[in-house]
Amino acid sequence: MSYCKNSIITVIVVIYSSLNVLGQIVGLNETAMGLASVTLHPKDLAISPPFVPLQGGVLTLGFDDLRADYTTYYARVRHCTHDWWYSDLHPSEYIDGFFDVVIDDMEDSFGTKVNYTHYTTDIPRSDMIVTRSGNYVLEVFTPENPDEIVISRRFVLFEDLCFVEAEVREPADVALRRTHQDITFVVTEDNYSFLDPYSDMHTAVLQNARWDNAISDLPPKYIKGKEIEFTQVGYVFPGGNSYRFADLKSLSYTARGVAGISEEDLTFHHLLEPSPRRTYTYYSSQPDINGAFVISNDRYEIHTGSDYTMTHFTLPMPYELHGRQVYIFGELSNGKYLPTHRMKWNDSKSSYESKLLLKQGYYNFIYLVKDANAQESETGMTADIEGNHFATDNLYTVFVYYADFEGYDRVVGFAQWNNDPH
Q1: Rounded distance between C-alpha atoms, residue 378 and residue 334, angstroms
Q2: I need a labelling partner for 221 at 20 to 30 A (CA). Which of 123, 296, 371, 378 fits?
Q3: pLDDT digit string (tens) for 283-304?
């Protein structure tokens, strides 16, 4: 009787644990302490976001271990629903090959003050082929502790099964026309039948590949035959401003925006020129890479010859924003509001300051503001420091999901473009 009772309890625990995993929402990109410079992008396209076609699309993962030892890391991919919960598909239903693969392409840095080991792999690869489109999360872990994820990155595999025509327009709300951008698009049925688009179709729109302020699941305005129109339904984003930049490629010569470079025993230091508040300035278009970063240097091999440098940021302000916090935001912050990227107020210099250890390269970033008591999931505001402009050139992405009859959210449509409102 005791054995039977214990067996029942064990079964219940196992079922509950399984449901708990399936019912877990996938967080934004995570990186464990000691790991740095994580990139996930289409192969040979370093500044493009990790959205590739199911057929023929390849992503490249790269990262550095600052402990500079040969740790064994494994990678796996997990299929997700359209709203970023782990789906109930078994890996065998979306992977042909091994479910976990070792990241065996690794190399030590050379000639650098900060020693590290660089790791890289492609996803998918010959021994792990992904067979279904959808939202995915790439997870990196060690074999000793497979449940402890040291790196996670979202990516999307899509299919072109419908036509998606999209553009940026002025918002219908007159008060927003100079500061916001309204994304409108039409989905036209082509090689895939939308039997019940009102309940089974889901859409998501991203600005500059950001998931923190993505807008999703707004109903279409109307359906007319094979056309499903999403016009003025609420996909409205603050226009923001052009991204600021930090050019850290050289350790010898000060690039534009760099006030000085110094060398100390443990690392180099880059002092960036103070970058002023832009809230009330007229919009001036500046070339940017939509918040991404590229590892690069002016002398040696890119990935193992680039050193790390302590980068000092300064934001002059006439006064402290009481009750609010200022963050350095971009791909350099994993698209998140990290405590390490929160700036501190220096009253004697009347400025916000911060420093980050960054690998040589070219970085885009902006300053976003959040209320001090805001939830982690709340989106930072551009208006306080960067300003909002309808004329800002942003990268927009539209995903069209459909609840496929095989029991998963299939990405049947995709559009991506840099708007140029001028």
Answers
A1: 15
A2: 378
A3: 888 899 999 999 999 889 999 9
pLDDT digits (tens, 9 = 90+) for 40-76: 999 999 999 999 999 999 999 999 999 978 899 999 9
CA distances from 10 to 6, 75, 291, 295 (A): 6, 30, 48, 49
Question: 124: which strand partners?
Answer: none
Cα first-last separation, the chain: 78
β-pairing verdict for 51-53 and 361-371:
unpaired
Higher pLDDT, 420 or 252: 252
Could you tell me which residues are beta bridge partners of residue 108? 117
Domains and CATH numbers, the chain: 25-158 (2.60.40.10), 162-239+393-418 (2.60.40.10), 244-371 (no CATH)
> Which residues, 6 or more positions from 152, have their beta carbon under 8 angstroms from its beta carbon?
26, 27, 29, 30, 137, 138, 139, 140
Buried b (16+ CB within 10 A) or exposed e, 356-395: bebbbbbbbbbbbbbeeeeeeeeebbbebbbbbbbbbbbb
- Tell me the whole-structure pTM to 2 decimals: 0.92
> How far is it between the farthest Cα atoms of the chain?
79
User: Which two three-digit tokens encode residue 393?
Assistant: 């050139």
